[in-house]
Automatic annotation (TrEMBL):
Belongs to the UDP-glycosyltransferase family. InterPro entries: UDP-glycosyltransferase, UDP_glucos_trans, UDP_glycos_trans_CS. This is UDP-Glycosyltransferase/glycogen phosphorylase. The keyword Transferase applies. Keywords: Glycosyltransferase, Membrane, Transferase, Transmembrane, Transmembrane helix. It comes from the Eukaryota. Pfam families: UDPGT. CDD domains: GT1_Gtf-like (cd03784).
Length: 503
């Protein structure tokens, strides 16, 4: 927008009107707040957040019938404001990508993790029972994660695509089965960076441009500023804006906070409650565990708030440790501010993020299925007492601060696509540029993607080499066998003749 382009946000919830940073960006609101328009069953969501994740359960969270609803909304908006380029979130947003291709308009995707674009053996995911890196795993685990695990969600995905294809046909959109097929022709901007992200081969059309952070952040409230100034060893506790855990887990976490304060390991806790069910939590209150006092801000070493200026809290010198769910933004902010982190992943990419932070040496992780006060206290002690956690956090912070400038690179890439359309696009009868997304960024697409799976991976070449090599070995073996047989027979004949002459 600073470069003279007209930008419109189409999304559920009200992002821009109440924002000091992005108020100038017009928004078309198409549903309720984040997380509620796509996830249609709140009871199922609660089950998903509190139980073991699997592909079948994840698929049930999303109503595939919303495809038609959002396709029609996007199409109406595109006609009203004459969209020249789509920027689509990669998560459950097939309608956005399909409409761009249908209207022959350029499209750019964005995501918060590159795991989705990278196949094993380079990357794997804890959601599939694997680790983010298989470097030190056994042959069995590497075989399972490279060959077996990728097929686990296949049937679920096929069922989902089957439903989407029915709706595509009704809307006049060409059906397809491979949701990753079009990604080979689309520029994807990924909000991550090496250091946090584990190194792996990437394609030219997959550009890492994170961490994307604002230039300014909300300041501390007077109450928070005062609390932090008188508590030099504060822990900040927040589980993000879209997830929650069981009241039992929250009670264990709060008991751990009290124990850490009693042991003088920390002297203050700031807790952003956000989606925590306070009513359910109150049932755990008793004389030994004064939850009501904590929630009413009557406990001197706790500061409770519904929402908090997270970056400002993490930036304060008295915030020594962060108890987080491990969301992408929270992970980036903890790295940027060099804050050692204890991660309690709840869903999605948070499990992978927790492992990445742990591999980077600035965090430890918890399990939502096996929370204990002793484990939490022990890990907070380690995070605060072992110098390596803070040192690794500071090392990554330097990398994050340099990479945070890449949002300007992202804007450059978007402009490059717009400029390419000027030369590769064709004007229709109304003077609007139309483009073929299959060939739009052909200069960015590696040759192996155009050559197909067999030629692109040189399977035909290597296969021929192996056949020739085996044929050569077999031929050499056969000739050797003939020669040895001949020599043996010749030797046996000569030996027989020698014996006959002696006789």
């Amino acid at each position: 927008m600073d470069r003279g382009y007209n930008v419109t946000l189409v999304a559920p919830g009200n992002f821009t009107a109440n924002s000091e940073l992005y108020r100038s960006i017009p928004q078309i609101i198409v549903g309720e707040s984040v997380g509620t328009s796509i996830i249609h069953d709140q009871e199922l969501l609660k089950k998903f957040l509190n139980e073991e994740s699997n592909a079948n359960l994840i698929s049930k969270l999303f109503d595939p019938k919303l495809y038609t609803k959002f396709y029609k909304i996007y199409k109406r908006v595109a006609e009203e404001i004459n969209i020249d380029l789509f920027i689509c979130d990669a998560g459950m947003n097939s309608a956005c990508f399909d409409l761009a291709w249908q209207l022959e308009k350029p499209v750019i995707g964005f995501a918060s993790t590159s795991t989705f674009f990278s196949a094993p053996p380079y990357k794997s995911d804890p959601l599939h029972g694997c680790h983010v890196t298989m470097e030190n795993e056994s042959f069995y685990d590497r075989f399972k994660c490279a060959i077996i695990s990728p097929f686990k969600p296949l049937w679920t995905l096929m069922s989902l695509e089957s439903e989407l294809n029915k709706q595509r046909v009704n809307l006049g959109v060409e059906p397809y089965w491979d949701p990753r097929s079009r990604m080979n022709n689309i520029l994807f901007l990924v909000d991550t960076f090496f250091g946090f992200e584990l190194p792996a081969p990437t394609l030219p059309l997959q550009q890492e441009i994170g961490p994307i952070l604002p230039d300014t952040f909300p300041n501390l409230t007077p109450e928070l500023d005062s609390f932090l100034n008188i508590h030099p060893r504060t822990m900040y506790f927040a589980l993000g804006t879209n997830v929650f855990t069981t009241p039992q887990n929250i009670a264990i976490l709060l008991k751990s906070c009290l124990e850490l304060i009693n042991q003088n390991i920390i002297d203050g806790v700031i807790w952003a409650t956000v989606k925590t069910n306070i009513t359910e939590l109150m049932s755990f209150s008793n004389t030994d565990f004064p939850i009501s006092n904590i929630l009413n801000n009557n406990f001197p070493h706790f500061h409770i708030t519904k929402f908090a200026p997270q970056f400002a809290i993490l930036s304060h010198e008295n915030t020594k440790v962060f108890l987080s769910h491990g969301g992408a933004s929270s992970s980036h902010e903890s790295i940027y501010t060099a804050t050692p982190t204890l991660v309690l992943p709840i869903m999605g990419d948070q499990f992978g993020n927790a492992e990445k932070l742990e591999v980077a040496g600035m965090a430890l992780k918890l399990s939502k299925f096996n929370l204990t006060v002793d484990d939490i206290v022990l890990k907070i002690k380690r995070l605060l007492s072992e110098e390596s956690f803070k040192k690794n956090a500071e090392r990554l912070s330097f990398v994050a601060k340099l990479n945070s400038k890449r949002k300007y690179r992202a804007a450059d890439l978007i402009e490059m696509v717009m400029n390419t359309v000027k030369y590769d696009g064709i004007k229709d009868e109304n003077g609007n540029l139309r483009t073929n997304n299959n060939v739009l960024l052909r200069d960015w697409i590696t040759a192996n993607k155009r050559m197909g799976f067999i030629k692109g991976n040189y399977i035909d070449v290597y296969g021929t080499f192996i056949i020739l090599f085996l044929a050569l070995i077999c031929g050499f073996g056969y000739i050797s066998f003939i020669v040895i047989t001949f020599l043996y027979k010749h030797y046996k004949y000569r030996n027989s003749n020698s014996k006959s002459k002696k006789n």
